[in-house]
Amino acid sequence: xxxxxxxxxxxxxxxxxxxxxxxxxxEISPGERVALVxxxxxxxxxxxxxxxxxxxxxxxxxxxxxxxxxxxxVATMARRVGLCFQDPDRQIFAGSVRAEVEFGPRNLGLxxxxxxxxxxxxxxxxxxxxxxxxxxxxLGYSRRKLxxxxxxxxxxxxxxxxxxxxxxxxxxxxxxxxxxxAALHAAGRTVIAISHDxxxxxxxxxxxVVMRAGRVVLDGTPVDVFAEAAWPILASTWLEPPHxxxxxxxxxxxxxxxxxxxxxxxxxxREGGH
Length: 274
Known about the structure:
This protein is an alpha/beta fold. Helices cover about 40% and strands about 20% of the residues.
């Protein structure tokens, strides 16, 4: 399995005016489920694009299993890190859904039954098996998001990076993404996701990394990051804790209460006359 280590990473976009990542230290162990959160422009997407070599550090370094990525080709890193862009139309190019999902694993050397199995399982996991022969651009936006996720999942990389995976999804789509992340975790694969959906983050991930102006300002479990003591830091990044976290703080249930515990607490207050 693959560990990601980021050491004093900084990245300055051409022109030298935008320091998108500014001295980040971060380590992500195999099998972790990590959410990256923060306002637009905080450096999240820039950071994850260093994980598969699409960007290279201005200063500092990124390591995969203690090997510097600066010495690796993008093709080599693609075998370890699969990345779904926020905009699915930046990844889609094939003439059918199946061909799109086949492309990545085929390039990694899968053939025959192994390739067919990987593709079918990914299509099934994302709920698009019935559209395997459809042109991707005949799909709606939410389905195209599911398609690019399937195309990365099918590659079998030990690390999967999802940029805003729930954008455009209804409740069923969000549930499907959450189920996929749980399945990847159960299989020992690392999942890193960028998200603005704090409820999804609190319910799906074991670790939350908060970024502001290219730096990490919070890093901990959802219980810690969404606790009332951390609300001022979240506010500085234009984020709010999940509504359940605010209710939980008010009722003394902690920052990540279950729906059942909230209902029981509210019933108890009602019966007690509060």
